[in-house]
Amino acid sequence: xxxxxxxxxxxxxxxxxxxxxxxxxxxxxxxxxxxxxxxxxxxxxxxxxxxxxxxxxxxxxxxxxxxxxxxx
Length: 72
Hints:
The protein is an all-alpha fold. It has a domain at 8-57. Helices cover 38% and strands 0% of the residues. The protein has 2 helices and no strands. The protein has helices at residues 14-32, 40-47. The longest helix is centred in the first third of the chain and has 19 residues, at 14-32. The termini are far apart.
């Protein structure tokens, strides 16, 4: 009888971890802001993007996709 092995508990989704980190940074920035909403420029600054739909600098591991702002 064959029993499949268990997955190692150290498996991590690196893209998900980056997205969680970015979400946390946005939440911290929003909590510290004096205005009701963060401006698009402030969001770009917090996410460390160039404002042209660029990727966060040095956050997304190569070959794992991109993280960006939702349109809107």
